[in-house]
Amino acid sequence: MVGLIVAHPVMTVYLTASFVLTVMNYIVPEFVDDYIVIQGTFTPGTFLGTMVHVDFKHFLGNFIMLIPIWIYSDRVNGIGFTTLVIVLNMVITGIFVLIKDDCCCGASGISFMLLGLMAIIGRWWLLIIAVIMFFTECNLVKDRDNVGHVAHIVWQLIGSGFAVIICLFKGLSIIEILK
To answer: pLDDT confidence of 140, banded at 50, 70, 90?
Structure first.
């Protein structure tokens, strides 16, 4: 565990902050609603929407997917690049919180964005997982379970698009990378 904290300081801070905000949301739900995620109003907490989780099931579900893909992205792309992708996700989510009344929050957007990104510039088995997740989310869109399935699909496509841009920038073909 100590190795994880030292090797991935950004992930450790993000995980800790998310856990604290989830506990606060569980104990005092009004705090998160009144001070962190205020739709249509800019506050310092506007960009913390990806750290807020409704309950511990939501928190654990997101981080069970996020931690392995984050560690793999750090190993392949470096901590700086992965941090940039996560900050980009937080900023875009914050903008949607400002303009949309029922914006979805949680770390799943980061999970799906990194999955889409790593499916292209990672390994072939990640591509298989990404395709399965994509079609699963497409199938779940019609469910009324308060989960942002469309947002998951969009973030995965954004991550994949980001990966294609990186490949083009580096002059690499996607087939060459997936070998």
So the answer is: confident
